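ARCHIVE CARD
SHELF: 3
SLOT: left
DATA:
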Amino acid sequence: MGILYVVATPIGNLQDITLRALDTLKAVDAIAAEDTRHTSGLLSHFGISKKLIAVHEHNEHQSAEKLLMQLSAGESIALVTDAGTPGISDPGAVVVDLVRKAGVRVVPVPGVSAVIAALSASGIVQNGFLFHGFLPASGAARRKVLEALRTQTVTLVIYEAPHRIVDSVADMCAVLGRERRVTFARELTKTFETIYSCALSDAVAWLEADTNQQRGEFVLLIEAAAIKDAEEMPEETVRVLKLLLADLPLKQAVKLATEITHEKKNVLYDFALQLKQQSE
C-alpha cells in the first residue's frame, strides 16, 4: 500500500509553506489537486515537477476510486487544495474517507490555517470557538442557520465569499443582534490583508464605504452569545435544572430540562456546567 498525504498549502503568501510540505511534495509519486493549474504555479515556484491529478468538488467521488487504485498499487500521493487544508471547507474529505476505509494509511501534513491566523490576530479572549465554514448562499437558508447558531456561547468562525459578504453581514446583524462584535479578517497573508472589528450594526456601512473591502476571501469572527446567569434565568428553570442535576448525569438532566422548560438546549447546558462547577 502507498500512503495518502493530506498536505496543507499557503492561503496567500507562498513563504508560509512548511519544510515538511515541500519534502512531501517532492517525494510522492503524484499530487491530487483541486485545481491543477493553481497547483502547477505553486510547484513551479519551488522547482517541483510532479504528475498532477484533478480532484475537485465535481469529480471527487470518481477520482477517489482512481486514487485508491494507485495507492493500492503502492504509489504515494499528496492531496492538496488551492489554499489551506483539504477537507476543511474544501474538497478532500471524500477521498480521505474512502482510502481510510480501504485500510490505506493517511498522514496529515499540517500548515497555515485561515481560522487560526484570524483568531490569533483578533485579540478575542473568549474561551473556545465554533468553526462553521461557509453559510448557505440563499438568504432564507442562511438566516435559518444563523438562528441555530445565535445562542452559541463561543466565538463563531464563518467563511464568506466577496459577492455575498454584504448580504451575509446584514443577515448576521438581523439574526444575531446589532450589538455583537464582528472581526473581519480579509485576504489573510496577502498584499491587501485587512483585520477590522466593529459592532454588527456598523458592519454593512463599513463594507459599503469602501468597495475594496468587499473583495477577496473573508474569515468572520463573531462575538459569542452571553451566558445566562442565575439572575437572568427564570426561577422555575433554575429549580427544575437543579432538581434534575441532583439525580441525573449532566447531559440527561439538560435534555429533560429542555423538554420541560422549552429553554434553548445549549443555553441550559452552559448554565448546568456553571451549576456543577459551583457545587464542586
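SLOT: right
DATA:
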Amino acid sequence: MSHDDITAHFVDLRRLTNADHILRAAIAAGHYHRLTPEIAMLRERFTELPPWDRVRARTLAFGWSADRAVLVSRSAAVIHGLWTLGLDPLVELAYLTRSAPPRSQRHPYVVYRRSHLHGHEVIDMEGVRVSTVARTLRDVARYHGVIAGVVAIDSARRRFPALPLDGLTMGKFFGIGMVRQALELSTGLAESPLESEATALLKLDAEIGRHSIVPQQEVTIGGRRVRPDNLIDGWLIVEIDGELKYDGHTFGKPTDDVIRAERQREKLLQNAGYVERRYGSRDIRGGLMLADVRRTLRSAPSWAKTTG
C-alpha cells in the first residue's frame, strides 16, 4: 500500500470544527484509532492493515504531526521504502535547531535522537520531513547495530543502485565502526530482509566466517540454473524461507506448489553432490541456523564438493 493510500484515511483532529459533530461522536465512541494525539484513522481500517503498513501508518502520522522534527533512522527507512530488521513500533525523531522536549511531554511511541542533522541531510517527502537515504543508512547502523545496518544498506543498493555509499563513513561520529562493518558485509544481492540478516550473521560468526560464503552464486545442474541464497565452501547450500513465501498468494503460487517445487529442487541438488539446509526466521533469530551450519561444516561428507 502506498503512502497516499494510507494518508488518505487520516483524520487531522486539529482541523475539526463544531460542524463535525458526527465525526467527533465516532471518535468519542472509539471507532477511530489515534495514531498520534493529532492524527486518527478508522479503527477497522487500521486493524486490516498488514503489520508493516501499521508501522508505516504510525510513522507517517508522527511525520505529519511534527512541526519542526524530522523522521530519522529506522523511521526514515520506513518512509524511503527500505528494509528494516523486524517491525519496531517506536518512531524516531530528531530536531535541527532545538533539543527534545522534556520526558514528561514525550509520547510513549517516540524516541528522540541527538543526530546533529544538517539542512542538506533533510528532504520533504509528501509533506513529511525525513533524513536523506544516505544519512538514514548511517543512523540505522549506528543506532541499531551492524546487522540492522546491513539489512538497510542491502535494501538501498537494490532500490537506489546509483546511490553513492562512500560518503557514509566520512568525518567523525559516534558508531562509525558499526557503519564501516555494515558496509563491508553488505552485498546488495539479498532478495529479502531475512536473507540479508542471515547472510550477515553467517559472515560474522567466528567459526563459519572462516569459510567461503558466496551469496546468490548461480550453479548449473542438469541444464537447470539454480541460484542458492548462500553457498558455503562450494557444497553447503543455506536457503532462507520467509513466511510470505508460503502464504499462498504473495508469490502467485499455491503453498503446495511452492513446497513441491522446493522438494524437487532439493533432490536435484542432493543428486549433484550438494547439501542443502533451509531456515526460517525463528531458526535464524533463535540461533538454530548458526549452530546447525557449524555442525554441518564440521562433519563435511567425503563426497562434498570443494571450492573450485
